[in-house]
Design goal:
The chain is α+β, with helices and mostly antiparallel strands and 320 residues long. It is 34% helix and 17% strand. It has helices spanning 19-26, 64-77, 93-96, 103-106, 109-113, 127-131, 136-141, 157-171, 175-187, 212-223, 236-242, 304-319; strands spanning 32-39, 42-48, 58-59, 209-210, 227-228, 231-232, 247-248, 256-257, 262-266, 269-276, 280-285, 290-296. Helix 1 (19-26) runs antiparallel to helix 12 and helix 2 packs across helix 9. The longest helix is centred in the last third of the chain and has 16 residues, at 304-319.
Length: 320
């Protein structure tokens, strides 16, 4: 059953937001599960589609990369990780011990965050072989170098999985435990455990589970400079650094990547977003004080690409 639109803040929708057209368009999307919008911290739209419910957990897929980035920022602030310029060689001396290509040891935390490690991707055509391998860390690190570190963007979930391993080794806790203690609990919710690799490292950058309202809370955290519930949960300077364009998408010259966040213009506004396979999104529109969340079916299908375009159109209908 569809939930009613929640209109708060004196029941007035800010004039810059066009909800009616967006809701009408959303109702026609067979893959869509939810659309939520918060304005200046107030939930002004909450709709569920195609049999989904508010309590239903969504697999946020690669939107998890934005969460991993937040955890890295917290770990740096606490001194567990030296900083974004720290090379990864010391964290993976076992896997890189016999590696002849010295460039791999010089890959930095920042290179992993921005998808500029230079390593051949473990995603797309290479994803199956990677997740079926006996050691995901070793498999990712033994990929050939296709670019010098810190140069071209090559999207690869192997990068963020390496970050999950670094978090585990430096914080003394699993990535899930660290996420629970440093992020989820301060935001007022619990993160379920998600899949791990054969060595027990929690999947870095895929398959985290959140409800749409929890996704809104995470988006509002970034919109508010890392603060929520009177606490500085993610360092403000990390939030600012994460939303700076640092790499250019190989597919679109007008789409950029920061520290785990995509960046592009939508509806005439600079927009930052966490993006997961199939249509899992957390959009930030700072100029309008908006967070927009969409969740969708993650099943493969020919209509998946047209569905993604429809979600971008949906967001533009709201904010143009």
């Amino acid at each position: 059953m569809l939930l009613t639109v929640l209109l708060m803040a004196f029941w007035i929708v800010p004039p810059s937001i066009n909800l009616d057209a967006a809701v009408d368009a959303a109702a026609r999307l067979p893959r869509l599960h939810s659309v939520l919008v918060s304005s200046a911290g107030e939930l002004i739209l909450e709709r569920y589609f195609n049999g989904t419910k508010p309590t239903q957990l969504a697999n946020i897929k690669s939107a998890s990369k934005s969460v991993i980035s937040a955890l890295v920022g917290i770990a740096i602030e606490r001194g567990s990780i030296a900083g974004v310029k720290a090379p990864i060689g010391s964290y993976f001396s076992d896997a890189l011990g016999n590696e002849r290509d010295s460039r791999k040891r010089s890959i930095t935390i920042e290179d992993l965050l921005t998808m500029r490690s230079g390593l051949e991707t473990t995603s797309n055509r290479n994803y199956g072989a990677w997740v079926l391998s006996a050691n995901w860390i070793r498999h990712a690190l033994t990929r050939p170098m296709v670019n010098p570190p810190g140069t071209a963007m090559e999207y690869s979930t192997g990068n963020t999985h390496l970050l999950s391993a670094i978090l585990t080794r430096t914080t003394g806790r699993s990535t899930w435990q660290f996420a629970q203690e440093s992020l989820a609990k301060p935001l007022g919710f619990t993160l379920p455990q998600w899949p791990r690799d054969p060595q027990g490292i929690y999947f870095g950058g895929n398959d985290m589970l959140m409800t749409p309202r929890q996704m809104i809370a995470f988006g509002e955290l970034y919109l508010n400079g890392g603060r929520a519930k009177g606490l500085q949960i993610v360092p403000e300077r990390w939030v600012e650094a994460s939303l700076i364009p640092r790499a250019t998408s190989r597919r679109e010259s007008d789409r950029f990547y920061g520290y785990g966040w995509w960046i592009r213009e939508l509806g005439g506004h600079q927009t930052y977003y966490a993006w997961g396979y199939g249509g899992q999104f957390i959009f930030l529109v700072p100029e309008l004080e908006l967070v927009i969340v969409a969740t969708s079916s993650s099943k493969p299908g020919d209509e998946r690409r047209s569905h993604l375009r429809a979600i971008y159109d949906l967001v533009e209908k709201m904010i143009e």
